[in-house]
Design goal:
CATH class of chain B: Mainly Alpha
Largest sheet of chain B: none
Strand content of chain B: under 5%
Radius of gyration of chain B: 25 Å
Distance between the termini of chain B: 23 Å
Order of helices and strands of chain A: HHHEHEHHHEHE
Number of helices of chain B: 16
Number of strands of chain A: 4
CATH topology of chain B: Formate dehydrogenase/DMSO reductase fold
Structural class of chain B: mainly alpha
Oligomer: heterodimer
Number of domains of chain A: 2
Order of helices and strands of chain B: HHHHHHHHHHHHHHHH
Radius of gyration of chain A: 26 Å
Number of domains of chain B: 1
Shape of chain A: flat
Largest interface: A-B, 70 and 71 residues
Helix content of chain A: 40-55%
CATH superfamily of chain B: Formate dehydrogenase/DMSO reductase domain
Strand order of the largest sheet of chain A: 2-3-1-4
Structural class of chain A: alpha+beta
Strand content of chain A: 5-15%
CATH architecture of chain B: Up-down Bundle
Shape of chain B: globular
Largest sheet of chain A: 4 strands, antiparallel
Chain lengths: 228, 480
């Protein structure tokens, strides 16, 4: 019983200690340490990418109430040369990728490569265990006959392909359990559509952007100092 | 919706003139209000069944599977029947969410979430039965190929039973991932409406979703990939389940027709179970505007098609048993239809082949009461199909001296009851705490079949009022 309380104390100590370290890091202008499972979402390349993104943190946001309006507004703003920071919608609006000029997601490559690796691993693993390490004589049959190993290989390809697609989606989009949601305006997950234009430099023509928003029945316009 | 092809013939997917906010309200209402008496009554019944199941399973694990009615001749019976039954039930969810997604069947959006939940709970129910059958379920990890100190003695990858381990666990994992990925945007909607502890929990579960179109774009790609992976997966799972039988040399099991026949049977039974659940659910939680009679009619059509294919499979089995000239094969099938288990065979045929044929009539297809009764019949029929395949092929084997009859014990009945208890407890809890309509997707298809906002550039059908509307719209634009 005492060891239980001892372990509990260690656990609590590590918790308080982590908070102290985070306070120190914050004062030094460093990013606070996260939980261990946040590491793929925080360190390395992604933080560099995020820093680059944060340099353009001032955005002009137009709030719309119809998907057709926000779609057309996005298309025209992009054609007019505005940098689209992001568009926030309650559901996947069809045609938004083209309107924003997004390129095709490369997640398919993750699925393909990981699926292929999983298939190779499964085939090799079965070959090693069944034909090399401990061949079992079943009615005098050849221990390696590829047909018998197709089902497990297929299932493993699907399993690893699916799980790696999920992980790639979460890591690339930096979605993780417990992440605090920063909504650009209330109602984004209900019935509002928001188009956020990045105000990168002094050449940003706010008046023209507002006029374009107005043409497409904007509900309200917000000038946010910090991008969500 | 600007991109959707409007059709004069197609009925709207969502009834009533609803705004986006109305859909959020309607979909979140069951999670936000206190459950009604009907829910509590159903939940208590389900929980009681689950409790009974828990006690009986504990008893049979402690005592051993000698508590079942198995004997030397009939070594597989009730347990395997239940396993195949539940795996089959699980197939409709993935079919609705993945295959109908790839075929761009927009009507799936109202039913896919609850069908996927049903898949996951059904697979959990299914997985319990082989675990019990192992006799020592705490050693279930021996089915995993890990380096061990017993040689290392590896699992036999040539055994269909091991294929099953991989198929069922992969199917469960991928279905759960597919379901959860779909849930995230809806959980975010629930989070932004909730307060207190619920906001916190939905906040953790929704992964910080903020509706970014950059993320939506990747999300859509990932969703399509999952659909692409799940479609062959769903076919493979019941194929492999059928191979548990088909790769043996028992007359009645050793047939090449089994894989497609099992897959179609799984879809057939799965749709029946989805229909049973949805007819109750749309009534209890007032979702008639979303799960419309058209949805039920579409499902009835799927049941009709798959039911007819199942009937064809029964006929083909009989034909091949005769045409093959195999004495044993022929005897098994004659024995099925006329032997001691003829009662089970004819329950199966009347429920699975005859009742679905009523769905040729549109009047019956659009009658909720008829559909409900039909779906129950199909559920019963498909349970008996597995019973017939397993038991009648075994009980009269090659040696007449070992011919016998199989009677299930009360323990086996109560275990089946317990699995239904588990299924309905999970499903009722799901209805309470998670969004049971994929309303993020419904919002995307709600304009289908309505004439509110036409695509003026690419109208599918040009009408007078469209032209007038377009002219009016042009004026507005010019005015701005």
């Amino acid at each position: 019983m005492s060891s239980f309380f001892f372990n509990l104390r260690i656990l609590l100590m590590s918790w308080t200690y982590r908070r102290d370290v985070n306070e120190l890091r914050r004062r030094l202008g460093m990013e606070p340490l996260g939980y261990w499972w946040q590491w793929p979402f925080r360190g390395g390349l992604t933080s560099k990418w995020r820093e680059a993104k944060q340099r353009t943190n001032r955005v002009l946001v137009g709030v719309f109430t119809d998907e057709d309006h926000v779609l057309e507004a996005t298309r025209e703003c992009r054609e007019a040369g505005f940098a689209i920071h992001d568009v926030y919608t309650p559901y996947a609006v069809h045609g938004m990728d083209e309107a924003m000029g997004l390129r095709r997601s490369r997640l398919t490559w993750v699925t393909f490569v990981m699926g292929a690796l999983a298939g190779a691993f499964a085939l090799f693993g079965q070959y090693y265990t069944q034909a090399i390490d401990w061949p079992i004589n079943v009615g005098g049959k050849d221990p390696w006959h590829v047909h018998a190993y197709v089902p497990v290989t297929f299932e493993f390809v699907v399993l690893i392909g699916g799980l790696s697609t999920m992980l790639a989606l979460f890591i690339r989009s930096r979605l993780y359990p417990g992440k605090k949601a920063r909504l650009v305006v209330d109602g984004i997950t209900d019935d509002k559509f928001a188009l956020a234009l990045a105000q990168r430099d002094t050449s940003f023509d706010g008046e023209r952007a507002r006029a374009l928003f107005a043409k497409h029945h904007v509900q309200r316009v917000l000038d946010l100092g910090e991008a969500p | 919706m600007s991109h959707s092809v409007e059709s004069e013939l197609r009925e709207p997917l969502v009834h009533g003139d609803k705004t986006l906010h109305d859909i959020t309200e309607a979909a979140c209402a069951p999670m936000e209000r206190k459950p009604n008496g009907l829910w509590w009554a159903a939940f208590l019944v389900a929980l009681t069944c689950l409790g009974i199941g828990f006690v009986t399973v504990s008893y049979q694990i402690a005592t051993g599977i000698g508590t079942w009615g198995l004997n030397k001749t009939v070594g597989w019976a009730f347990d395997i029947t239940n396993f195949v039954f539940w795996v089959g039930i699980g197939h409709a969810g993935t079919l609705i969410s993945a295959v109908l997604f790839l075929f761009r069947q927009k009507w799936r959006t109202s039913i896919n979430r609850s069908a996927e939940a049903m898949t996951i709970f059904a697979v959990i129910c299914a997985a319990i039965f082989p675990l019990i059958h192992m006799g020592r379920p705490w050693l279930a990890f021996w089915t995993a190929p890990y380096p061990n100190f017993r040689g290392p003695l590896w699992v036999n990858f040539r055994s269909p039973l091991l294929w099953d381990v991989f198929a069922i666990s992969t199917y469960f994992t991928i279905s759960a991932v597919f379901w959860y990925i779909g849930l995230i945007p809806d959980l975010a909607s629930a989070r932004d409406r909730a307060t207190g502890i619920r906001k916190k929990i939905y906040g953790i579960m929704s992964f910080g979703w903020n509706g970014s179109a950059r993320i939506w774009s990747r999300y859509e790609t990932a969703y399509m990939l999952f659909a692409g992976l799940a479609t062959p997966l769903v076919v493979s799972v019941h194929t492999i389940v059928s191979m548990d039988f088909a790769t043996s040399v028992i007359p009645g099991w050793h047939t090449t027709i089994f894989p497609p026949y099992f897959v179609i049977g799984a879809i057939f039974s799965g749709f029946a179970m989805v229909m049973t659940l949805l007819i109750i659910m749309r009534k209890v939680v007032n979702l008639e505007a979303f799960i419309t009679i058209n949805h039920l009619e579409n499902m009835a059509k799927v049941i009709l098609v798959t039911g007819s294919i199942v009937g064809l499979a029964y006929a083909t089995e009989f034909f091949v048993a005769w045409y093959s000239g195999s004495e044993y094969e022929g005897f098994t099938f004659i024995n099925r239809a006329t032997g001691p288990f003829a009662w089970a065979y004819w329950i199966m045929v009347s429920c699975n082949v005859i009742t679905p044929q009523l769905m040729w009539f549109k009047k019956l297809r659009r009658n909720v009461v008829v559909l409900f009764i039909l779906s129950i019949f199909v559920n019963i029929g498909m349970w008996f199909e597995r019973f017939v395949i397993v038991v009648t092929s075994l009980h009269r084997d090659f040696m007449p001296s070992s011919w016998t009859y199989y009677t299930p014990t009360m323990i086996e009945f109560l275990t089946l009851l317990g699995s239904f208890g588990l299924f309905f407890t999970c499903f009722l809890l799901f209805c309470r705490v998670l969004p049971m309509l994929a309303f993020g997707e419904i919002k995307g298809v709600m304009r289908t079949g309505k004439h509110k906002h036409h695509d003026h550039k690419h109208p599918a059908v040009i009408h007078k009022h469209d032209v007038a509307h377009a002219k009016k719209h042009e004026k507005e634009v010019a005015h701005v």
